[in-house]
Description:
With 503 residues, the chain is α/β, with parallel strands linked by helices. The chain has five domains: 27-149, P-loop containing nucleotide triphosphate hydrolases (Rossmann fold, 3-Layer(aba) Sandwich), CATH 3.40.50; 154-203, no CATH class; 204-316, Arc Repressor Mutant, subunit A (Orthogonal Bundle); 319-414; 427-489, Winged helix-like DNA-binding domain superfamily/Winged helix DNA-binding domain (Arc Repressor Mutant, subunit A, Orthogonal Bundle), CATH 1.10.10.10. It has 22 helices and eight strands. It has helices spanning 29-40, 60-73, 106-112, 134-142, 168-172, 182-191, 215-222, 226-238, 244-251, 255-267, 285-293, 297-313, 318-328, 334-347, 352-365, 373-389, 398-402, 427-433, 438-448, 453-460, 464-478, 483-489; strands at 48-53, 77-79, 91-95, 122-127, 146-149, 241-242, 271-274, 279-282. Helix 3 packs parallel to helix 4 (134-142) and helix 8 (226-238) packs across helix 9.
Amino acid sequence: MPSALELWPAPPCAPRSVSAAAGAFVGRQCELAAFDAVLAEADTRPPAVVDLVGDPGVGKTALLTVLAERARARGLHVLTGPGSRSGPKPAVLLLDDVGRAGGVTSDEAAALLGPGAAESLVVVVAHRPGQVSPRLKCALTAAGAAEVELSGLREQELGPLGADGLCDAHRHRELRESGGNPEYVRILAAWCTGPGSCAGGPLPAPHLTIPGEAAAIWSELAALPRAPKAVVRAAGVAGAEFDLELLAEVARMPQDAVLVGIDALLAADLVRPVGSSGQLCFRSLMTRWVAYASTPGGSRFGAHLRALSVLQARGEAPDTCAVHVERCARIGDLESVRGLMDAARLTASSRPLTAAYWYAAALRLLPDAAAHRELRGELAAELAECGTAAGGSAVTSLSEAASVRRIGRPRIRLQPAGLGAEAPGGAESGSRLGLLSSREKEVAVLVSRGRTNQQIARALGVSHKTIETYLSRVFAKLSVCSRAEIANLVGRTEGGADYAVGY
């Protein structure tokens, strides 16, 4: 009889109707126009070779499908593998997912670009970053291949993929981190139930199943051997970034066995190193979601408990531990209630919708007894203020919070001076801070609170490398050279306004 860790869920169900429009091709007008120009000259110019690079889910296969349709419409013979290149008109060779299991190998692709390659041939070699062999790299260089890095879609192009139906919290948090990746947006739209019905909490919620939009990722994870599968599930629970010690504790595996599993996950491009920090992260947040959702409920509950124990022993910030607290706390656990309150207070100024979710989670854990009436009132009032700071967005339990009297209770300052209000010391610092984007302002505020880059990355749900990029922009835009100068500008040093959430 297999243990719970060996079980794997059934294949994902069919995509929801909300994503029915996702099959339509969206965007990529510049790439299509360039390809049309190449096709128009296919029989009069030397072979044209394109090196198409893009992360999983960004739309390489969809683009190649449209390119094939356009080539056939011109009467060109289209090939999708290393077969015969004979045809009445110059052939168009489209090689998708090169270097991946089941696809064209790098050596086969390199041979097609070698000295024996036919003239008047348009070749597109599509692959993931880091999945090309040295031989193919040399062949692409020798063929004079034009490298095209396929990035995400623009924000205005994401509506047909389901972005228009997201709740405010997921629109402002997860969608912003999507980078416009179409697969990411489709999965997000399948899990978010939309305004008015979605709680806006961390995804995926424990009760959600894997949607059809995530079938490709599910297939990759399901094909893993037993040990790497256990490691990837532990990583899905552990957090946005994880290290060897944390994975070993969460997976209850020896570190040597975890290292073997990590090697397999790196080779499959499911996880990637985070700079030189010794930490790892999933290649994308959606990959983590599917790994998490594929873990059986009982195993997931225990994994949250073990992850929480490790993080608390390390002294991690409450907002880093909050998701584990919420997923394994019991009703009446006042320590967990206070932990969620602390997490909400840490995020209230920069991410009020996230803070509102933690306040609501704390309220759900608090028994409805007279002994806790004062604490319940305090929680509900702070939740109401988060709803106000979020611009009137729907917030769980907001109607309950609105009925609470606030007489005699100090108010939380959710809008720090300098990011919308003028800080003491003059308008100069405020105007300089106005040069920052909303995400750069969040990074600046957290730097002013003394948070490290790794802590900021965990708080914002992005990689350590991404925070380094944001921080370099903050330094450049503010014309500063140190974190202390940033803290001075946002009011954490003497003479400035207090950025800490105070009462």
